[in-house]
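INTERNAL AUDIT FORM
Audit reference: QA-55
Scope: verify that the stored structure record matches its stored sequence.
Auditor: D.O.
Record contents follow.
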Amino acid sequence: FCVLTMPLLAMLLRPRPPAAPATPVRAGTTVALAAVPPSRPFGLSLGQALLATGRAREAVPHLQAARDAGLSPAEVGHDLARALAAVGRKSEALETIRSAATAGETSAQAALRLGLLAASLEAPEVALPALRRAATLDPGLAPARESLGLTLALLGHDDEATPELEAACTLDAGSATARF
């Protein structure tokens, strides 16, 4: 269901040009979708589609509802944090990242995405646990080791940063850090 509806939702909910009048189909679809009680996958899919089409403000309640309906922070955390950050709710976004990064079922890739999002929000202290988790879950994931090393260096932990950056360079000799 989710796989088939994502492209359809993205198409229906794409942002309108500022000068374009609202169409009855789009307005009716948005109202009809808002009236549906959020099921776990549908609420997440709708929130992701809204976020993908630049409608973060509308995505937030759907992503929060999906989380509140029982989806794990690992499943909904990155999208919810991105949406919260996009609407200027940085502290809530960072708290969502903290929660998602420590969720037991977070994958290395998901933890890396969370760490990079926290870093982009200029919160290296929030990025650090997520990046540590990513590097721990998959020690062979060069971008995680590189990002962890750079974040440690940024925070002044040079003694910890050096082995992480060395490992990243060994794993991926073509990375920007290795070339530097």
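Auditor finding: record pair retrieved intact. DSSP finds eleven helices and no strands in the chain.
Action required: none
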